[in-house]
């Protein structure tokens, strides 16, 4: 059985959903967003579905739909519920499964557990999305360090958006990542752009 690929990031707003769409299109994989926090009328599942051209991929229902656009533990509390990791069951599929997380690795799901605990529980391989900004070296290295500490396999490090050779070369020299992917800035986000981006990456 194929291990699921868990798309997480070094922070929020760095392009996990776009990267997820590209991977779903590239691999003709299934997609699952276990926890959607806010934006229920235009969820990440809806966004990815609207960008996919292939007819093979299936989209699995979220385990938690939270009404507020905050960290899951806060959104859940506002909604009067508690996220229970044992109640989140991976969808059954014979296809490759792309799982998109919420925010970064250390985002809290309840008072004790984090996104990375879900990754560890499911023995998923990680696609870590990085984006170049002031502070991104620190955030990327800390994310990779925690994944290594927990013996979680990094399938690929994705540099999403504009190139910064100083940042990227330092990260790669410091961490010796086996697989890196580059996704350029996408000016017009539509099915055609995602299709062509999927063809260009070597995964």
Give structural attributes.
alpha/beta, 203 residues, Rossmann fold, 34% helix, 7-stranded parallel beta sheet, globular, 7 helices, two-stranded parallel sheet
- Determine the N-to-C terminus distance: 18 Å
**What overall geometry do the principal axes of the alpha carbons give?**
globular
Order of helices and strands: EHEEHEEHEHEHEHEH
Q: Which CATH architecture?
A: 3-Layer(aba) Sandwich
Low-pLDDT stretches are: none
Rg, rounded, reads: 16 Å
Which CATH class applies here?
Alpha Beta
**Into how many domains do the coordinates divide?**
1
Q: Name the CATH homologous superfamily.
A: P-loop containing nucleotide triphosphate hydrolases
Structural class of the helices, strands and pairings?
alpha/beta
Counting H and I runs of at least 4 residues, what is the number of helices?
7
Largest sheet entry: 7 strands, parallel
Number of strands: 9
Helix share bin: 25-40%
> What is the spatial order of strands in the main beta sheet?
4-2-6-1-7-8-9
Average of per-residue pLDDT values: 96
Estimate what percentage of residues fall within beta strands.
15-25%
The CATH topology comes to Rossmann fold
Oligomer: single chain
How would you describe this structure to a colleague?
The structure is a single chain. The chain is an alpha/beta fold. It has one domain (5-200): 3-Layer(aba) Sandwich (Rossmann fold). It is built from seven helices and nine strands; from the N terminus they run E-H-E-E-H-E-E-H-E-H-E-H-E-H-E-H. It has helices at 16-27, 44-51, 72-78, 115-122, 136-149, 165-175, 191-200; strands spanning 5-9, 30-32, 35-37, 59-60, 64-66, 97-104, 125-130, 154-160, 180-183. The strands form two sheets. It has a seven-stranded parallel sheet with strand order 4-2-6-1-7-8-9, with helices on both faces. Strands 3-5 form a two-stranded parallel ribbon. The longest helix has 14 residues, at 136-149. The protein is globular. It starts with a strand and ends with a helix. The relative contact order is 0.20. The mean pLDDT is 96.
């Amino acid at each position: 059985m194929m291990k699921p690929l868990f798309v997480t990031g070094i922070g929020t707003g760095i392009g996990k959903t776009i990267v997820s769409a590209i991977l779903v299109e590239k691999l003709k994989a299934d997609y699952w967003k276990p926890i959607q926090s806010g934006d229920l009328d235009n969820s990440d599942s809806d966004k990815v579905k609207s960008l996919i051209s292939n007819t093979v991929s299936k989209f699995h229902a979220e385990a938690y739909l939270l009404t507020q656009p905050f960290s899951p533990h806060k959104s859940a509390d506002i909604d009067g519920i508690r996220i229970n990791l044992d109640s989140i069951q991976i969808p059954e599929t014979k296809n490759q499964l792309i799982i998109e997380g919420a925010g970064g690795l250390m985002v809290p799901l309840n008072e004790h557990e984090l996104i990375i605990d879900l990754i560890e529980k499911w023995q998923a391989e990680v696609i870590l999305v990085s984006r170049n900004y002031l502070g991104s070296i620190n955030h990327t290295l800390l994310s990779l360090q925690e994944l290594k500490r927990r013996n979680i396999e990094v399938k690929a490090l994705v540099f999403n958006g504009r190139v910064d050779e100083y940042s990227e070369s330092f990260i790669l020299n410091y961490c010796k990542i086996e697989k890196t992917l580059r996704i350029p800035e996408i000016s017009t986000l539509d099915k055609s752009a995602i299709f062509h981006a999927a063809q260009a990456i070597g995964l």
